[in-house]
Amino acid sequence: MAKLTKEDKYKLQNLIGDGPKAFEKLYSAKENGCDAVAFHKHCDNRGATLTLVYNSVGDVYGGFTTASWQSVTNHMVYDTSAFLCLLRREGNTEAIKFSIKLPPSAIMLDEESGPAFGSGPDLQLFRGKISPEADGMFILNSSMVPTSYVSLPKSLADEITGDASVSDIMVYSVKDASEQLMEIPWRPEPRFDKEYLNDLMDEVEGYWPLKDMGVNENALQNVNILFIGPIGAGKSSFLNSVESVFRGHVTMSASAGSRTKSVTSAYRQYPITASDNRQYLRFQLCDCRGLDDGNNITKDIEAILEGHMPDNYTFNISNPLTSTTHGFRKDPKLKDKIHCVVYVLDAEKYSADLDISFVTADVRDQIKDIQDMVDQKGIPQLILLNKVDNACTLTKQNAANVYKSEKILMKCKDAGNCLGLPPMTVMPMKNYYMEPSTTDDISILALYNIRQMLRAADTFLRVNHLDELRSDKYESSYN
Ligand SMILES: Nc1nc2c(ncn2[C@@H]2O[C@H](COP(=O)(O)OP(=O)(O)O)[C@@H](O)[C@H]2O)c(=O)[nH]1
Ligand SMILES: [Mg+2]
């Protein structure tokens, strides 16, 4: 059986384009028989494929199509991505690509034919069945009449130096390599099982600020996590996801939607009730107006960070909150301030290939100003990368695949780069947005991400407020 070398793969990836590819052998004439029936049995309905022929003088040539092979009678199929190629030739390392000229006749489907490209046919390898010669070679009854593929200036037929005698014909399925799951997750945690879910639930429900540092349970009522991001990135949806975990069913407390104007026009601090409905958890999720072009709310965000903005305050773009605004909290306590900032981005918005960013240039500038402010105050910053289901079909099928998806790993790195934060600060997330009821996988993601935020908030408190929170003299936030 003929083998694809590393160099072959590299050349083929370049010819096909659009990132790394995985080649999986579907058919070999030597192993399965040089027979149209055997070819169709192994290759029909498999999506994109690459066919390669190995001839007696060392030429390796063939064709690529994204259309599936099928057992029908004489039917032409449209494909703009199809091409023929001469991959190797004795003493020549450059691959030659013959692009499609007439996409409507890219490949020809026929149950009595092996792989066939173009209406010439430009490259039809064999019809019916061909038995091997004594030396194992197949003498093909090929047809090569350049018609549907470009000849530049020579056609594939002109380039091939050997006769019709070939050692093998291989067909590979071609898949996007980044759509394959990694064997070892790129982050060791979380695990996606019931036990892990229960542990996370206990830890988040049992949390109080700096518990691990021996700080008294009543020293600080709660930490505050502020969510900042462009309109529609899924801030409200994440808050709803977290609330849903503790309610045990999907809820919509924070209004979410895809209207272009921010649905969230008021500043809201959401406390979360424990699953037994008895007490509030010791953190609040703070939802603010979404960022959009031309509406800078950086000043208001500063007021939020410092604890001056009251719950339910309606943003007024032309008049930021000042000390004279009604409701302005003049003497904010530690429990009113922000202890962790989470930038919320939409994974779907980004495309490295099309050079589309997660945010517009204007929103990027606004976030930069906000980041400077947050940096100065030493508040930890994380990124919540929402809608990862739209960025990776395997994660869409099963949220537990998120940490095994190379595509999502790349997105997380890109999201970190976009805001100048390290990749470990990026938390991929799929929200409850169309699920009728809660599922363990999404709940694990929500809780795991919340725990990251609580740990970040604790780090901030440890560095800046530990002595004061430990001190007996500390005026409890409950007063
Ligand atoms: N596919 C998908 N859609 C989501 C996800 N999270 C939110 N959405 C959708 O994104 C849209 C905007 O969400 P929303 O929470 O209102 O964004 P906000 O403006 O940042 O508060 C809504 O239509 C949601 O249903 C997610 O994880 N996956
Ligand atoms: Mg919202």
What can you see in these coordinates?
It is a single chain. The chain has 479 residues and is α+β, with helices and mostly antiparallel strands. It has two domains: 6-178, no CATH class; 194-470, Rossmann fold (3-Layer(aba) Sandwich). The chain contains eleven helices and 19 strands. It has helices at residues 6-16, 29-32, 36-43, 156-159, 194-205, 235-247, 298-305, 361-377, 393-397, 406-419, 440-470, and strands at 21-28, 34-35, 49-55, 60-65, 75-77, 83-88, 96-99, 107-109, 116-117, 123-124, 129-130, 138-139, 165-176, 223-228, 268-273, 280-287, 340-346, 381-386, 426-428. The strands form five sheets. Strands 1, 3, 4, 6, 7, 12 and 13 form a seven-stranded antiparallel sheet that branches. β15 and β16 form a beta hairpin. The chain is elongated and about 90 Å long. It starts with 5 loop residues before the first helix and ends in a 9-residue tail after the last helix. The model has no long low-confidence stretch (mean pLDDT 91). Magnesium ion (MG) binds next to α6.
